[in-house]
Amino acid sequence: MQQGSDIAPQAVSTRMVAGMWWFFTLIMISSYTANLTAFLTITRMESTIKSAEDLAEQTKIKFGPMRGGSTSSFFSNSNHTLYQRMWAMMQQAKPDVFAESNIEGVERVQKAKGRYAFFMESVSIEYEIERRCELTQINGLLDQKGYGIALPINSPYRSLVSGAVLKLSENGVLGELKNKWWKKNGGGKCDLSGEAEGGANNELTMANVGGMFVVLVVGCCAAFLVAILEFLWNCRKIAVERKFYTEWIKDVVSWPDPVSPAVLFHLAASVSGTAWRNTYSNDHQDVAFQYAVERINMDTYLLPHSRLERHIANVSFVDSFTTGKRVCDLMEVGVTAVFGPESDRSKGIVRSICDTLEIPNLQTNWRGSLKLDAPCQLNMHPDPDAIALALVDVLKFLSWKSFAIVYESNEGLMRLQEVFKSRDKLSAKISVYQLSMDGDHRPLFKDIHDSTQTHILLDCATDHIMDILRQAKEVDMFGDYENYFITSLDAHTLDFSEFEHLQTNVTFLRLIDPNSPEVIDAVNDWVHGEREYGRVLNIRPETVRVEAALMYDAVNLFARAITQLDNNNPIEVTPLNCESGNIWPYGFALKNYMKHIKFKGMTGDISFDARGWRNHFTLDVVEVLYGGITKIGVWDSIDGINSTKTYEEKLIEIEKSIQNKTFIVFSKIGMPYLGWKDKNAEGNDRFEGFSMDLISEIMIMMKAKGFEFRLVYDNNHGSLNKKTGKWNGIMKEIIDRKGDLGICDLTITYDRRQAVDFTMPFMNLGISILFTKLVKEEPELFSFLKPFSFDVWIFLATAYLTISLLLFFLARRSSLVMEHKALLMAAWRRVNNGSLSQGSVGLPGTNSTNLS
């Protein structure tokens, strides 16, 4: 208990207090010693943040991403409570925490010296910390995403470019390129393998224990001061007693001034039978009617005892009264069938007269009145509802998820009703435009171009198609990325050779197969027949129009039906009068025979349903590519579309096309993706970087003619302005189809994928935090106090004082106390008994020596 003290408590109460004090002192000294050892011998690291959660829980360290970038979109669109809170903190922060570029963000982290953290893609952080040794990446990724190469939406090159990226990845080329531009070219300056996560044992320096010396010196100085005061006090007493006070003061005043010691220390800071003709005569249709009649008259099977006599009458397009009078005049001659006319206005009066006199009326074109209830009318044209279904099936086959309908007349809208009804089935966004009446369609196509639409469903007169496409080309709406679907069944007769150097895909349906024997034989008859008359007929199987072929088939249908009817019930041709009310008794029977006839004509298989509408026909799905027409599928009303062109064949066509194509590649300056190599050079020789090397490898793999790098004017990746709906940067150039490819550290996001197509990612990454490295914390001067908190020291001092007082009072009231020391001496010696004496045979007797 006493540990060398020459004074020991005598009473039980004082011994109990002394024992508890000794136990308390032992534990406190042991705890203090152990913690002090850890604090002094282990280098402390200033670990301020370890995750995004840490950032959100404090306010001293500001944080933010690049303004308008994919990282900003991640936070603003996130449903995660933490990220929503962090986004709110970023928006409310003053000053602004958003950086205008990654470079600005990195520099801000460096300058802030631990007061700013920057959110950016992990691969970009990897690049920076290879070159800036004071920066580090905070562990963990906030999301998973990738960098991709952007292409105009529905680009035909997407599959090939993606395939090339995949092969490069499998071959390890992507890894080599990354290693080249991340680590070798200017990288590798920093040793990232030995980044400390905790502390390391180190020898103690004056920075660790300097505070102890300060306490020692201060204590000694205080003791010296107390000693002087004690001395002066004692001297005064002696002087008074011996009456030498004045002389003694003189001696003291004459002493030299003492020199006060100074303690210097350093604090380091870290940081798409009669043909009635209208006045606009279709020469090929007249020729078809003429030679169909001649061929039937030469056929020994059809009408072997009769001959057909043809009459071609040109009637007014709009004057139905004159047309009706002409029809009635011919009826008085004797007519068994009427073919045509084409005009809706002329057609009405002709149909009415035929129904009244019961003369079959055969139509060969689509008009809105096709389905009107006409007892004697039969239309050779395919059922418009079936045609509409074919249009819908083709749109599904083409996988158009959005397209613009460009129509010329209200009749066109009627043809497209089924398309509008199938909007939900197609899951497509449809916009509608009407062609201008003045013939200038360029403003319309400019509007479509600005809407970024590349798929056009075009419904117009066949004779207008080429002019419309030329105007579209003038405003960059007939290029590599546009796709047109033309509803005209005569589109195959057009010459698309002027567009042979373009990759615009034009698709349409074809009712006439130019390779069928029926078409080839009929065209040969027409050409040779005209030649015998000394005329030249400029027609080929590929240029036969549908109405001419339908007229030829209509005459053949009539001949077959009237032959069967005449064999079963000989017929007579009788003159009729429109005003007498007489009818031709064989009309209805003849129409019914025609409805049951089935044969193969120029327009394929011909058959009719009970209503007299043509059914079970087939349509070829053809496309125009590089000026040539290729059959890619067949449609029928039962099975829909059967593709005749494989995916591999399509890729082969694209591969052949790019051998003569120079790709335009848009990018931005920003290492390691693209940087200046020589600003005075030309073309691609000006640049270098990961993007340049990657595109070069892709072009070699695709065997493309070449590529040309271009810079975007604003050096931005591409962000969407929510107010205007416009994009900037690389995204804008690709959306406007000014470039074929867009590459940089361009993150694939939802908004961007709605505007452009992306290849598969060439680099996977996530959002991480760029911050300054964990910095060694310089020890504080009084670090030896660190093992105990301020509260503990206060309690220790209180305990010290309390025990001292307690011992004093207990000692004064104990009858066993042998020594009658003063209060201060008793408390001081007893409290210090467990620490200072430690085997000493004597304790300091004065205040100054006790203090020191």
TrEMBL record:
<keyword id="KW-0675">Receptor</keyword>
<dbReference type="InterPro" id="IPR001828">
    <property type="entry name" value="ANF_lig-bd_rcpt"/>
</dbReference>
<feature type="site" description="Crucial to convey clamshell closure to channel opening">
    <location>
        <position position="49"/>
    </location>
</feature>
<keyword id="KW-1015">Disulfide bond</keyword>
<dbReference type="GO" id="GO:0015276">
    <property type="term" value="F:ligand-gated monoatomic ion channel activity"/>
</dbReference>
<keyword id="KW-0472">Membrane</keyword>
<keyword id="KW-0812">Transmembrane</keyword>
<keyword id="KW-0325">Glycoprotein</keyword>
<feature type="binding site">
    <location>
        <position position="70"/>
    </location>
    <ligand>
        <name>L-glutamate</name>
    </ligand>
</feature>
<feature type="transmembrane region" description="Helical">
    <location>
        <begin position="213"/>
        <end position="233"/>
    </location>
</feature>
<dbReference type="InterPro" id="IPR019594">
    <property type="entry name" value="Glu/Gly-bd"/>
</dbReference>
<dbReference type="GO" id="GO:0045211">
    <property type="term" value="C:postsynaptic membrane"/>
</dbReference>
<dbReference type="Pfam" id="PF01094">
    <property type="entry name" value="ANF_receptor"/>
</dbReference>
<dbReference type="InterPro" id="IPR028082">
    <property type="entry name" value="Peripla_BP_I"/>
</dbReference>
<dbReference type="GO" id="GO:0038023">
    <property type="term" value="F:signaling receptor activity"/>
</dbReference>
<keyword id="KW-0406">Ion transport</keyword>
<keyword id="KW-0813">Transport</keyword>
<feature type="transmembrane region" description="Helical">
    <location>
        <begin position="792"/>
        <end position="811"/>
    </location>
</feature>
<keyword id="KW-0407">Ion channel</keyword>
<keyword id="KW-1071">Ligand-gated ion channel</keyword>
<comment type="similarity">
    <text>Belongs to the glutamate-gated ion channel (TC 1.A.10.1) family.</text>
</comment>
<dbReference type="Pfam" id="PF00060">
    <property type="entry name" value="Lig_chan"/>
</dbReference>
<feature type="disulfide bond">
    <location>
        <begin position="133"/>
        <end position="190"/>
    </location>
</feature>
<feature type="binding site">
    <location>
        <position position="71"/>
    </location>
    <ligand>
        <name>L-glutamate</name>
    </ligand>
</feature>
<feature type="binding site">
    <location>
        <position position="121"/>
    </location>
    <ligand>
        <name>L-glutamate</name>
    </ligand>
</feature>
<dbReference type="InterPro" id="IPR015683">
    <property type="entry name" value="Ionotropic_Glu_rcpt"/>
</dbReference>
<dbReference type="InterPro" id="IPR001320">
    <property type="entry name" value="Iontro_rcpt_C"/>
</dbReference>
<keyword id="KW-0628">Postsynaptic cell membrane</keyword>
<protein>
    <submittedName>
        <fullName>Uncharacterized protein</fullName>
    </submittedName>
</protein>
<feature type="domain" description="Ionotropic glutamate receptor L-glutamate and glycine-binding">
    <location>
        <begin position="672"/>
        <end position="736"/>
    </location>
</feature>
<dbReference type="Pfam" id="PF10613">
    <property type="entry name" value="Lig_chan-Glu_bd"/>
</dbReference>
<keyword id="KW-0770">Synapse</keyword>
<feature type="domain" description="Ionotropic glutamate receptor C-terminal">
    <location>
        <begin position="5"/>
        <end position="184"/>
    </location>
</feature>
<feature type="transmembrane region" description="Helical">
    <location>
        <begin position="20"/>
        <end position="42"/>
    </location>
</feature>
<dbReference type="InterPro" id="IPR001508">
    <property type="entry name" value="Iono_Glu_rcpt_met"/>
</dbReference>
<keyword id="KW-1133">Transmembrane helix</keyword>
<keyword id="KW-1003">Cell membrane</keyword>
<feature type="site" description="Interaction with the cone snail toxin Con-ikot-ikot">
    <location>
        <position position="167"/>
    </location>
</feature>
